[in-house]
């Protein structure tokens, strides 16, 4: 159990000392290695946009100075922000009013002070508080309206009966509307509109008939040697010997029986 010599230490103490000594050495090595590993992992992982924004803002806050974009692109990598992304990060800060910019001559300068961020946050807070008050006020108004609408609408036997009657009336109204659609052809206004449409169509047809006669006369006068070819062309186009102006009396005005199942009949109206 004891080692050799008068002052020899117990064997188990010697073993414990060896274990503790090895553990201290291992911890020392790990303490030297871990920071390096963390650095490598952070380089590999990269920074999020929010982290980049914080680091670029820190440049302004630490210096409390103004910078050109090219200067920020040189300072960014020192904070872990690659120079290629500095411009986009700065622009996002400008859009959020966390960084100010101004053009002086041909140069554009950027700056931001810690107080600017505080003012911005206070402004945002005031706006949110104002929006919250407005929302609470609107909510209270809606609650009051809801309570007012509930009055007189409590569940009761009388109300249930009235709702049932309302449903019956709405159903009957829908049926009557469908029936009115079936009788639409007998509506005086519809018939008058049809007469007006027939009149317009009659005038248009005769106007084109007149144009066709004029064109035929012009062709006959200018191409007398092509009379047979022209007649053949007219026939193919449907312009036959009986082609003439249309008489309105030959056009019917549509009328129908009051029975929606009865087929529509043609009523010839003499306009003479």
UniProtKB/TrEMBL annotation:
Keyword Cell membrane: no
Domain Leucine zipper with capping helix residue range list: 190-246
Compartmental location: Nucleus
Main location: nucleus
Keywords for the protein's UniProt record, in alphabetical order: Coiled coil, Nucleus
Domain Mnd1 HTH: 56-114
Gene Ontology cellular component list: nucleus
GO terms, biological process: reciprocal meiotic recombination
Segments forming a coiled coil: 125-186
Source organism, top-level taxon: Eukaryota
Key word Cytoplasm present: no
Name of the protein described by the UniProt record: Meiotic nuclear division protein 1 homolog
């Amino acid at each position: 159990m004891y080692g050799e010599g008068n002052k020899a230490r117990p064997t188990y103490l010697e073993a414990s000392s060896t274990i503790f000594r090895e553990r201290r050495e291992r911890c020392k090595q790990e303490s030297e290695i871990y920071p390096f590993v963390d650095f490598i992992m952070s380089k590999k992982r990269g920074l999020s946009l929010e982290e980049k924004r914080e680091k670029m803002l820190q440049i302004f806050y630490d210096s409390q100075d103004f910078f050109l974009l090219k200067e920020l692109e040189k300072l960014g990598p020192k904070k872990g922000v690659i120079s290629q992304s500095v411009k986009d990060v700065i622009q996002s800060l400008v859009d959020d009013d966390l960084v100010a910019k101004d053009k002086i001559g041909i140069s554009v300068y950027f700056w931001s002070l810690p107080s600017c961020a505080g003012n911005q946050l206070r402004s945002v807070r005031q706006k949110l508080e104002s929006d919250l008050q407005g929302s609470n006020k609107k909510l209270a108004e809606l609650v009051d309206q809801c309570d007012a609408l509930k009055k007189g609408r409590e569940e009761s036997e009388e109300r249930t009966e009235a709702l049932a009657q309302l449903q019956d009336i709405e159903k009957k109204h829908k049926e009557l509307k469908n029936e009115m659609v079936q009788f639409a052809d007998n509506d005086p206004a519809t018939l008058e509109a049809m007469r007006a449409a027939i009149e317009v169509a009659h005038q248009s047809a005769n106007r084109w008939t007149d144009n066709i006669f004029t064109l035929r006369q012009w062709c006959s006068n200018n191409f007398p040697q092509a009379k047979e070819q022209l007649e053949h062309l007219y026939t193919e186009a449907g312009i036959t010997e009986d082609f003439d102006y249309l008489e309105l009396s030959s056009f019917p005005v549509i009328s129908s029986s009051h029975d929606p199942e009865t087929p529509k009949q043609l009523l010839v109206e003499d306009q003479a």
